[in-house]
Give the backbone structure.
Amino acid sequence: MPMIYIIDVTNRDGVQTAKLGLAKIEKTMINIYLNKLGVFQSECGFPTTRHETHYLNAQVELAEMGVLRPIILAGWLRAIPEDVELAFKWTRLRDFNLSISTSDQMIQGKFGGRKTREDILNDMTTAVDLARHLGARTLGVNAEDASRTDLDFLIRFAKAARDHGADRFRYCDTVGCDDPFTIYERMRTLAIQVGIPLEVHCHNDLGMAVASSLAAAKGALDGGVDAYINTCVNGIGERAGNADLLSVILGIRYSAGFRGKYHLDPRIDLSQMWRLAKYASYAFRVPIPINQPGVGENAFAHASGIHADGVLKDAHNYELYNYQELGRGEPEIVETGRQICIGEYSGIKGFRNVSQKLEISFRDEEEARKILELVRYANVLKQKPVVADEVRFIAAYPEQARKIMTVTP
């Protein structure tokens, strides 16, 4: 039976959000949380961007060590041979999504008419052939602006990707103009006509990214192929954002049309979601809206007398799912007395105090000082406090942390 899988693109599309960004160690922590959540793949960065090289190679090392497994770590490339060659030259990634614009709007407005549809097909198939020749493990082919692409050409494009060895075809609703009805029909047609697993990548310009993502997945499944939904943590993303990771998962598990009828990757463990959402909010410096599904402050708050009475009698009267399922329920303790914070100017005694509270032990003073030095660098790069899980990661994997934080102009 066809399955729904999650491919999270926070570390690729989310970090492209204007005025926002993540330090490399924060991107690493996002990957670790996504892995614990059971996400199928993290589109974790740009292999042709020089400042990503050490970070990406360190992610591969962490995967080889078992820290980032079984999640697949993929890079985003333009579907041109030059990008493919650089990706294999500069990084050890072997899983990629190759992207090229397919709509007449983009061909004229973006490429200035310098390319034809035939050029688009040739660029894509040449890039896919080269990636396979160089040893790519998995390949997704992206049609940027698929939602505004002539359907007959889109089918031809997807078939060419399939015939040249692509594992998946990504339908990009690049400007968020699709709705659940149009995208369902287009995805179902693609599934039937092309017979290849389909990805959907929706933006939220009209506020329908989650609904359109679910409808697109339904179209793929009804057409007989696996569906892969692209998400971002907390719905972060360019312009109005991308499909929210948690909302997509909740929609598959609890909406009337999906529950018991369509199947989500069984590795998904929602008990990790609260921690991931809170960390992403901290790292991006974007507060979680009070009414955000599942993780908003009011998601399980009841004020109305009728509602409060009903939920006390039986939570299912007014709650569709349990807060504990998301990893919520423990009180958040905020220190109101003395605090010893670790930053770029911290000393060894203060660091020893913090590490003891985190139950981190060191062989000797020399090791403690080496870890402190790395924690200082993390604070310099992030320009915000280093949190407990980051300190634990640095202490456990200092060499990988060193590589992640190395950026050489």
About this structure: The chain has two domains: 3-275, 348-403. The two ends are 49 Å apart (CA to CA).
